[in-house]
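Throughout this review, each integer encodes one residue's backbone shape. One record appears below.

===
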Amino acid sequence: MDMFVCNKCFATIHRGKKPFCLTQCGHIYCNGCIPQAEKQCPQCQRVDIFSVELQQPSLSKVENFFAPINESLESLCKVYGFQNNQIKIMIQRFHEIDKKYELLKSHYCNLNQNMKVLKDKYVKLKMEYTKQREKLISMETHNKTLNSLSDISTPIDCNIKRSKPRYAWIIM
């Protein structure tokens, strides 16, 4: 942090008006020069920019800009390693879920196929049941008819005797 200077008056952090500010366009200005820089940056001529003070608590937002490059690279390597590991874990989990999905999908297809077979069997059995039921009702109706006919009394053996005629008429 001791290495930066105001990009307008070139005052160091020890000589310039504190706090120093970092603009969104990446330039540093002391507290005396920042009002002009926020209207129009003296370095890049951008207009209406905002800035962040280079002191705590705002400093933590931008302190990586001032870290030595080798430390920044080490930090980036750690960040990359961490993020890469997280991505690997997520991909592994995705593959596990995908395998489960494919297994469940296969199981579902088999169950669906079995369900179709069972449904066809059910429909056939239902039709057969209906036919058998109709036959049974028809047979019961036929048996009732026969039973009702056999219950009717008919004079088969009557005790009435016919007598022979007493007089025979002969016509000549």
Summary: The radius of gyration is 55 Å.
